[in-house]
Amino acid sequence: MASIDTTSESARRPFEGRRVHLGDVVLQGVAGAAAAGATALVLLIAWKVVDGARPSISKFGISFVWHDVWNPVVGREAYGAASFLFGTAITSFVALLLAAPLAIGIALFLTELAPRVLRGPVTSLVETLAAIPSVVVGLWGILVLGPALRSHVEPWLHSALGWIPLFGPPSSAGASIFTAIVVLTIMILPIVSSISRELFLGVPAELKEGALALGTTRWEMVRGVVFPYARGGIAAALILGLGRAMGEAIAVTQVIGGGTTISWNLFNQGDTLASKIAAEYQGATSNLDVASLIYLGLILLVLSLGANIAAQWIVRGVARRHGVTRGGRA
Amino acid sequence: MKGAGEPSITIEPIMRVETRRQPLPPRERLETIFHVEGLDAIYGSKTALKGVSMEIYKNLVTAIIGPSGCGKSTYVRCFNRMNDLIPSFRMNGSIRYHGQDISGSNIDPVAVRRNIGMVFQRPNPFPKSIYDNVAWGCRVLGMKDDLDVRVERALTQAALWDEVKDRLKASGLSLSGGQQQRLCIARAIAVEPDVVLMDEPASSLDPIATQAIEQLMHGLKSEYTFVIVTHNMQQAARVADMTAFFSISRGEEGERYGELIEYDATEKIFTAPSDKRTEDYVTGRFG
To answer: For residues A143 and A146, what is the distance between their CA atoms, to the nearest angstrom?
Structure first.
């Protein structure tokens, strides 16, 4: 047998000649095409949105952003994004303000405080919240949450904190900006809490032990070690939540009621960029109307991309900082 | 002047450190700080340690040595209730600290840990500045007066001050492994504990960093009581006044558990142990 092998060319020089491995080529091609496709898709969508908004852009220019009139009546057409931008800003920021402490609290409970037997089931339940289709959340908002807020929470807030312009007199309809805020809070809660939970789980046990060994309480340990360690990641999670809240269309459309004026009163009806598009695109009356709605979409796209990039930027900063940790340990 | 052939750096020979140890006073003159009696440490249904009884004396360095898996880390973590973090863990028996049993479930582990500090196997500085690593514990525990003085004193005691005094605002993580471990020692002693537990504090360090830590233990034992777990017998021989040898024993059903075999003056353990198992271990014949 040995004599046969030594006569064969390839057996004598087994490492020479780079061969083409079919599997590698296919993998390279498929993976590369997928990556290129995704990139191309982002660019294509961006271009399509700009293109669709062009009639409105050329008519109103950048001042579209701060004009707050939206009048599709032919002959007196005027379009501006300001009231919807305002609606998007106020709903998403207040929702984030409500969701942040709740989400971080849930994450802390699930990682540090809850009895171990509860952690698994409660974690699954919280994540299930994210699986409820937004249109179903919206229905619940219309049928249950809206009326409940309207008849109990809103009057109470108005009588207790009415001196703050945000808590003006409740409107007669069940729909309000406030209902949209609560719906958005519920919708961003799972994503923020599940990312925070991962971050808290990522805090090295030895750091927590180091803090506890000094004789600190659990809360002091959380405040002194867990929060600072997870801070950057939580900021990124909050921004992702903000992006989600800004972009949510259906559920907000269902509960916010529609309105074209800027109102600081949370109990009035309103509209956001996303809900305006969702509510009116089908019934748009003219080319300019359609283009203006797409222009709203363009603004929303820029805001969402901005939020996403900010979150990525923060995450990268955190990764760099933790890279120092590993280097220091080596 | 040094002779031409002499190396410029002299590393202290091991024996020099060892001979610095003072002869032990007679046991009746030593003050007992821990009185351990019949201690069992159990994880779930598995017994890690069985029937440990010993006294630990104030202002001495006590070493816990033994093979891997003999429960020496578990043992030392009983003293500051660190095992409480493991849900299935429980202890039987008693650990009296200055006469008071600290092993019961009615004891507040936070209060225990304020008196009994700990340094861990791997350096675990907080992701904070060097200054804040030391100051944080003081602040949280309400020792806020003269914080700068406190930090400087702790870093000096941990033999780190000269190396870091110009960069106290730098991250604790920017230090080398040996410096990080001294920072953790400074952090532990800044809150003025009574006892400092050390769980293999030098196992991830190079010999020079190890020596620095051993020397600082020598320097500090007049103020603190040290209990050090080590897998390194030379280290025990160098730093410890008393040495406890733990080993793995087999029960009737073949289950393995850790057990205290012999506890005596370090000199005696290493030169004239009374148990055959101790002798086998310290002479390297452990199988």
So the answer is: 7
